[in-house]
TrEMBL record:
It catalyses: 3-dehydroquinate = 3-dehydroshikimate + H2O. Transmembrane segments: none annotated. The gene is aroQ. GO terms for biological process: amino acid biosynthetic process; aromatic amino acid family biosynthetic process; chorismate biosynthetic process; quinate catabolic process. This is 3-dehydroquinate dehydratase. Homododecamer. The active site is at Y22 (proton acceptor), H100 (proton donor).
């Protein structure tokens, strides 16, 4: 199966961005680990990070056309703002897991609402970079 890891705004700054909140791992570290874990499971991984909402929307549209089987998505700040990304996922009808490095529920109230959680297969929040491994494990189980 083909899995898409989609990373939202500012996640290209991981490693230097608020390391106390988001950890020391860079996005390259996270993607490399995901690539290893995906190929060990016999699947194929594609990745995209974008700071632009429309690029993430268009990637989701293309994912539907390409027949991508599963998405791991950290919408970052768009979690709390983007009806358009929610609608793109509903239109694509591709199962996805919502991932956050930090525990959004232990942070500011504006981070407690997500436009994605109720349409996600599940949500992983607060386990740092390991959250992506946990999400991929869950995705592979669902893809069996
Ligand atoms: C985040 C949490 C969001 O609230 C924040 O805007 C981010 C990252 C996380 O991974 O913890 O950019 O999605």
């Amino acid at each position: 199966a083909t899995i898409l890891a989609l990373h939202g705004p500012n996640l290209n700054r991981l490693g230097t961005r608020e390391p106390g909140t988001y950890g020391a791992a860079t996005l390259a570290d996270i993607n490399q680990r995901l690539h290893e874990q995906t190929s060990e499971a016999g699947h194929h991984l594609l990745t995209l990070q974008s700071n632009a909402e429309y690029e993430l929307i268009e990637r989701i549209h293309d994912a539907a056309d390409e027949g991508i089987d599963f998405i791991l998505f950290n919408p970052a700040a768009f979690t709390h703002t983007s009806v358009a990304l929610r609608d793109a996922l509903l239109a694509a009808a591709i199962p996805f897991i919502e991932v956050h490095l930090s525990n959004v529920h232990a942070r500011e109230p504006f981070r407690h609402h997500s436009f994605f959680s109720d349409i996600a297969e599940g949500v992983i929040s607060g386990f740092g970079a390991q959250g992506y491994e946990l999400a991929l494990t869950a995705a592979c189980r669902k893809l069996r």
